[in-house]
Amino acid sequence: MAAIDAFFASKRGRALGTFVSLFKTAPDGQNWGNEPVTNVRLLSKSKLIAFRQCPKRLWLEVHRPDLREDSAAVQASFQAGYQVGEVARRLYDPEGQGALIDVESEGYDGAFGRTAELLSSSLAPIFEAGFRTDGALAFADVMLPERQNGQIVWRMVEVKASASVKDYHCDDIAIQAFVARSAGVNLKSVALAHIDSSWVYPGDEDYRGLLTENDLTTEAFARTDEVNGWVADAQGIVAQPGEPEQAVGPHCYDPFVCGFCNYCNRDAALPEYPIDWLPRLSPTKRETFAELGVDDLRGVPDDLLSDRQYMIKEHTLNKTVFFDVWLKTLRSIRAIRFGKSGRHSTLASVIGSCFAADVKPI
Question: CA-CA distance, 141 to 12, in Å (whole number)?
């Protein structure tokens, strides 16, 4: 799904996703491209996740994808998803016997049709398998076949370029399981595979052990009614003739930085030193700043910042250049300033460490 998500995020993919979202799908799977609809849509998983973040984001994703501006960091995350997806295919199909569904070249009807055929007869892995049900579609990263009581059952694995399971991953898995089961897939289990941060690359393109799995079957299967409600509510949002009212806030960055932030903030008075310049600014910290009415670095309390965030704030406001060789020393100085534990207990020892590192204090 990582590759599919990246495709939908591209300019071409956003346009295609809009087309799929806005037009009916006939019983035989053919698009009635000349007949706009008001009640039946195929919303991708990424669209439903967008709805979970913000209804206005979903509306804009469908009706005004041209307004979306993804940051370099977001684009980099898509590229990372591609790379991890490629590695996952090698890990789950070391003999290369599996099938890869390519919606871009096969089209939606072709992708759904070939997926259905493989699910009913194949005993090899399927990658990017496509499913559709009333109002929603999804593509699974990995489908692994097993025999159970003389029947073929399937194990779904979603692969994430993350070092742990995030809350929104659980929504992701719930949607995937819902669409697959609603489409009639004999789904035995679902799991999320993420990067094992303790893994060490041995070389020679050997990625065994890179991914670790977390079984989410019980939770995902138990959320069928909940996901069905998301689909219905999302369809209601997309059917609106105009974009819904939604104020900007911490949700604009949680769990992802929304690509429509510039559009939604177009009439706002922008701060001279926005807090967005701080790296790794968590949703919780954003919410804290919002409660304090702070949107400019000059108003951010120092004791709420990490060492690196504090460093960036100080040098940004002072218009000075900072080299990482000083970060270790900075942490020690802040430990003294804010009473936090640190390696050095006195300013003299901090300055001494600078000389030990052959660095001239200023």
Answer: 21
| Cα 197 to Cα 210: distance, rounded to the nearest angstrom | 8
Ramachandran area for residue 260 (φ above 0: left; ψ -120 to 50: alpha; else beta): alpha
CB-based contact 64:57 (threshold 8 Å): no
Nearest-angstrom CA–CA distance, 348 and 358 = 15
* 300-343 confidence digits (pLDDT tens): 898 888 888 888 888 889 888 876 654 555 555 555 444 444 43
How many other C-beta atoms are found inside a 10 Å radius of the C-beta of residue 63?
17
Q: Is 264 exposed, middle or buried (0-12, 13-18, 19+ CB in 10 A)?
A: buried
Which tokens hold the place of 127? 């990658």
Q: Is the dihedral of CA 297, 299, 301, 302 positive or negative?
A: positive
Q: How far apart are CA 101 and CA 107, in angstroms?
A: 10
Q: Is the pTM of this model over 0.85?
A: no
Contact 170, 121 (CB under 8 A): no
To 10 degrees, the CA torsion angle through 63, 68, 74, 78?
50
Q: From CA 138, how far away is CA 115, in angstroms rounded?
A: 12
Query: CB-hemisphere CA count at 13 Å for 216?
Result: 28
124: nearest Cα among 142, 111, 139, 106: 142
CA 343 to chain centre: 37
Cα separation of the two ends of the chain:
51
What class is the 2-238 domain? alpha beta
According to CATH, where is 3.90.320 located in the chain?
Answer: 2-238
The identity of residue 52, as a single letter, is R
**Which amino acid does the sequence have at 239?**
A
DSSP-derived 3-state class of residue 174: helix
53-69 pLDDT, tens digit per residue, is: 999 999 999 999 999 99
CA distance 189 to 291: 42
Tally of CA atoms within 13 A in the half-sphere of 338 that contains its CB: 16
